UniProtKB/TrEMBL annotation:
Keyword Nucleus tagged: no
Domain Transcription elongation factor GreA/GreB C-terminal: 86-153
UniProt cross-references to Pfam families, sorted A to Z: GreA_GreB
The entry's keywords: Elongation factor, Protein biosynthesis
MF annotations from Gene Ontology: translation elongation factor activity
InterPro entries the UniProt entry points to: GreA/GreB_C_sf (IPR036953), Tscrpt_elong_fac_GreA/B_C (IPR001437), Tscrpt_elong_fac_GreA/B_fam (IPR023459)
Protein name (record): GreA/GreB family elongation factor
Coiled-coil residue windows: none
Region span, Disordered: 1-25
Provenance organism: Jiella mangrovi
Length: 154
């Protein structure tokens, strides 16, 4: 049999990992989000050095993939600061809504990588954020199965 048909594993060979999806939406970030991107890059660079020192090729491949992702996100980041001269909800602002049962919840509209819904940080692409942007205090918006009233914008 020809060696062309035999695939023997090579110890230096690491299978290519699929790239992380960068998405096609604008990469809006808050100042906090920009800092988070920088921190992720620094963390990945430090991890890469550790993996190199340990000659861990699998870890190096994974970290390099993540590093490409974070660097691409950083290079496309568009720092967006809300205008203080408007009374409508914008990217980067914190908005409090009152649900029909009287519960008040607060959300900050942030970039994709910064979103953490349990901490009240929602992506500007989320259904709730899309409902809120452009609205004013007192406006009603669809929030899940019911409507909620915007009670404050910070």
């Amino acid at each position: 049999m020809s060696v062309a048909f035999v695939k023997e594993p090579n110890e230096d060979q690491v299978e290519g990992l699929p790239e992380r999806d960068l998405g096609s939406d604008p990469n809006f970030v808050t100042e906090r989000g920009l800092d988070m991107l920088e921190a992720e890059i620094a963390k990945a660079e430090a991890s890469l050095e550790e993996a190199r020192s340990a000659s861990d090729k699998i870890a190096m491949a994974m970290i390099n993939r993540d590093l490409r992702y974070w660097r691409a996100r950083r290079s496309t980041a568009q720092l967006t600061v809300p205008s203080a001269e408007t009374e409508v909800v914008q990217f980067g602002q914190r908005v409090a809504i009152r649900r029909p049962d009287g519960t008040v919840q607060s959300y900050r509209i942030v970039g994709i990588d910064e979103a953490d819904p349990p901490k009240g940080l929602i992506s500007y692409l989320s259904p709730l954020a899309r409902q809120l942007v452009g609205k004013e205090e007192g406006d009603r918006v669809r929030a899940g199965p019911s409507e909620a009233e915007i009670v404050s914008i910070e």
